[in-house]
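We modelled the chain as a single entity of 406 amino acids. Its sequence is:
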Amino acid sequence: MATQPLPLEGVKVLDFGTAIVGPLTGRILSDCGATVIKVETATHPDVCRVSTPQKDNVSGINRGGYFPPFNSGKMSLALNLTKPKGREIIRKLAPWTDIVIETYTPRVMKNWELDYAALSKLNPGLIMLSHCLQGQDGPRANMRGFGTQSAAMTGLFEVTGWEGQDPVGPFAAYPDWIAYHFTVTTLLAALEYRRRTGKGQYIDQAQVESTMHFLAQAFLDYSATGRIATRMGNHDLQMAPHGAFRCTGDDEWVAIAIQTDEEFQALCRVIGRPELGRDSRYATARPRKANERDLEPLIEAWSQQRESREAMRILQEAGVPAGYVAKAQHLFDDPQLVHRKAFVELEHPEIGRHHVHTFGFKLSDTEIVPRGPAPLMGQHNDHILREIIRLSDSEIEACRKEGIFE
């Protein structure tokens, strides 16, 4: 790729985010060229710094396996914001900053007098994003939680699991992995608004409301028919057959999703059962959906004789939508992902070589990849304090003695 300036070069960010959404938002801004300072504290560290997995099963504040992919390319400012002098340093940084990201409950930044009302007085062009579970106002605004709670509250748990069984929910804190698309988009819109008007803006982003977009089909179905979506395993309301079919090997599967009669005819030919495509129980969509449970073992009789990636290849070549069910280790040697540099290796000063993901989009003139490893706790304190806000040695030492940099 040509070496052109990155799209967000010159944009400066203070990232108060913890866990996933806020840090991922800051990470993608950093990949795009922004200078991002992660404001954190060892007295109450980002949960991803201290949670498992940790490199080589050795615990430490710089060894959390989740932390590097969310925070690569950032600087770290270790700052105890419960102390007045810690908050004063943020006020000194406010005029330097273009964007502030925070993911606390609504009361926190306000109690510290670091909310938008306070910081925008110091920098009228400031853009501030507050992302929390249910937004900045309303009867449940101060409710705390993770993506697990927002997944439950938006209905994802109700539709994830097997028919007639308990809800199981999506893997991990799924809404955290999708909400950052909304935060990044709104921040870019606010930057464009400021470019045109010179004015900053405050963004109040509620994770519950963002996550609801990913259940749009269920909401539309309810508004149109009164039907309430619930658990149905791998089945689909219209497509049939639709599911994961066992392949040879230990816990190996291929996913198949048939939308048209033509795709079903192709599937029948691939599995050596062309007569099923002429059977009135299966030939067209409505009866095929009604009888899909009878079809599934017939398909699995074929898939169980093949390795999952081989099954995918054969089906795809015949025009049947199919994909092997990957495990984590498969992704690192997947030829398509390798070709597109979906993962890059970075050298971290404490955990050494490790992989982080890229974001899946490519720009023709600039390469969007992590600009460095995740920082050690407080790694860039001296640079930020001396070079950006230009504190004197005596001021820094006074803060150090008061425990401001914990």
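As a brief sanity check on the tokenised model: Residues 135 and 206 are 4 Å apart (CA to CA). Residues 12-213+340-401 form a domain with the Rossmann fold fold (CATH 3.40.50.10540).
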